[in-house]
Amino acid sequence: MTDKTTMTSVERALTVLGAFQLDDTSLSLAELAQRTKFYKSTILRLARSLQNSHFLVRLESGRYQLGAEVVRLGEICKRGTTLDRLIMPVLQKLVEATGESATLYVRKGEHRFCLRRVDSRRTLRDHIREGDLIPLTVGAPGRVFLHFDPGIAPPMRRGAVPANVRTDATLPLPIVTRGEYDSELAAIACAVFGAQDELLGVVSLSGPINRFRKREAQIMGETLLDACQRLTAELGGNLKHYAPRKPGGAS
Fold this sequence. Notes:
Layout: H1 3-18, H2 29-36, H3 40-52, E1 56-58, E2 64-66, H4 68-98, E3 101-108, E4 111-118, E5 133-135, H5 140-148, H6 154-157, E6 166-168, E7 175-178, E8 185-193, E9 199-208, H7 214-234
Antiparallel strand pairs: 1-2, 3-4, 3-9, 4-5, 6-7, 7-8, 8-9
Helix pairs in contact: 1-3, 4-7
């Protein structure tokens, strides 16, 4: 099958899903054909693939309704949009309070994706940009994903930490790493959870390693933890993940 043929099939499948409107509970084959302008044979072929992927369900009556996968993606989109709407004021306040750059990461496969970023006003800072992809196996944000995201394969969770890297990877939150992503940089990261107890994203403070000594890291970590707890509460998440840190935990 050529790339062009694949794209045509995908576009047609999306057209079938897009035929459903807000008040529809189910649609017949004839209704789908009328709305998509496709032959019934084409819709039957597409419907079989969509059923296999749980995007469509065929009822005993022969009618079709949207499947569980559509609902799941809809929930992800809704929560992601809500987090995106709430996050910028939080990042801005974190920069004002700590003087360091603040970033929201979300997971994309085996990478963390920089979704939103507010830079430190200081001349000397790290230079992560919105849209950057960074492996999950390096840095404090990646370690939070590795700990809390059940969709990450076990071999990846066992990624080795270089012997010269000082890291507080034991969790509870927040977690601090120094010199892991870059030998001159440090980061503090904390998770944000949603209403279904899922990890929605990771918020990080980052900057030159000499500004993240034990005392500074402890103060910034408390500020970051408070911000993430507030975000999680606003999103309907459970605060159980934010267990108390032992004294001196942010080293």
